Amino acid sequence: QVQLVESGGGLVQPGESLRLSCAASGIRFTIYDMGWYRQAPGSQRELVAEITSSGRTNYAHSVKGRFTISRDNAKNTIYLQMNSLKPEDTAVYYCQGSWLRDYWGQGTQVTVSS
Questions:
Q1: Which residues in the chain come in under a pLDDT of 70?
Q2: In 40-90, at which residue ranges do the beta strands (DSSP E only) sit?
Q3: 3 state SS of 60
Q4: How far apart are CA 32 and CA 10, in angstroms?
Q5: Helix, strand, coil proportions of the chain in percent (round to 5)?
Q6: Quick check: 97 and 25 in contact, CB under 8 A?
Q7: 39 near 22, Cβ under 8 Å?
Q8: 68 has which bridge partners?
Q9: Are the CB atoms for 51 and 67 separated by under 8 Å?
Q10: How far is CA 4 from CA 17, 28, 29, 43, 80, in A?
């Protein structure tokens, strides 16, 4: 059974940081491309950052320079370090794993508000 479990969300003030984690099980993690997506109320789900099985990364323009995606293949986990958070980063953040088909986590809420 495939599981992607996100953690690390919460309520922070503008300018603060958070680190999200996504632990994967039931998949051969090292061959999967992994990504973080987010969905704000009334908006479509959008790509935030992705990391390929070989470690190449790609970021949405809106988060480039503030967010960093990484993976630890020994722990079957990916991370999203989010710095200089803005209110417009408020959303539910989802972890995705992709190889032949996509798997999704249940999401974790990130709220940036003063």
A1: none
A2: 46-51, 57-59, 67-72, 77-82
A3: coil
A4: 27
A5: 5, 55, 40
A6: no
A7: no
A8: 81
A9: no
A10: 22, 12, 11, 23, 14
* Structure tokens belonging to residue 42: 């009334």
Structure tokens given for 46: 């959008």
Tokens found for residue 82: 């989010």
Residue with tokens 């959008």: 46
The residues pairing with 93 across neighbouring beta strands, listed in sequence order, are: 38, 108
Degrees, nearest 5: CA angle 104-106-107:
100
What per-residue confidence (pLDDT) applies to 60? 98
> Quick one: CA dihedral 62, 18, 53, 91, positive or negative?
negative
For 70-101, write each residue's pLDDT tens digit: 999 999 999 999 999 999 999 999 999 999 99
Q: CA-CA distance, 77 to 114, in Å (whole number)?
A: 31
